[in-house]
Amino acid sequence: MKLPYTKITFPIFFVVLSLLYICSCSKVCSFRSHNYPGFYIATYNFDGVIKSVDNELERKEAIFRMVPGLANRRMISIESCYYPGYYLRHSNFQIKLELFSSDKGFKKDATFKVVKGLADPEGISFESYNYPGFYIRHKNFKLYISEITDELSRQDATFYIIYR
User: Fold this and answer.
1) Alpha-carbon gap, residue 147 to 127, rounded angstroms
2) Residues with Cβ within 8 Å of residue 89, at least 6 apart in sequence
3) Tens digits of per-residue pLDDT, 38-61?
4) Mapping DSSP to helix (H, G, I), strand (E, B) and coil, where does residue 129 land?
5) 116 domain residue, yes or no
6) Residues linked to residue 117 through DSSP beta bridges, in sequence order
7) Per the domain annotation, does 92 fall within a domain?
8) Coil, helix or strand for 150?
9) Which structural domain, as residue segments, surrounds residue 69?
10) What is the pTM of this model?
11) pLDDT tens digits, one per residue of 82-106
């Protein structure tokens, strides 16, 4: 089953307000890749990846809940709906899905600032809380935080929210 395609077309101000609303009610969503339109942020063996969602399990692994940031409530953290209590976080620059920990380092690694899409202002990008200037991006279908240095990396770091 493919996820439906919906594109956010609000100015970034309304996107931020919408994200604050989402965080307050923990609405679920998926994140579609800008430059791989049939691929979504998901997990595979607890690694962050982008992949197509061709069956029910893959669809479930691509559904997340944006919640107030664990290290800064004005930002967000991304909780798995399939594995409640597990969050996307970076570790050695790779995105992993890990069980919540009260450790300050975990909270910082699992907190992201949502910004206007680096390749398309109608999309969004996720900037690391504790590594400013580093964004979630995909490379070879795996997710990392990385500095953005060229057009390809801007495209790899841009996603569209698909509300569920």
Assistant:
1) 10
2) 95, 96, 97, 98, 106, 109, 110
3) 999 999 999 999 999 999 989 999
4) coil
5) yes
6) none
7) yes
8) coil
9) 29-163
10) 0.84
11) 999 999 999 999 999 999 999 999 9
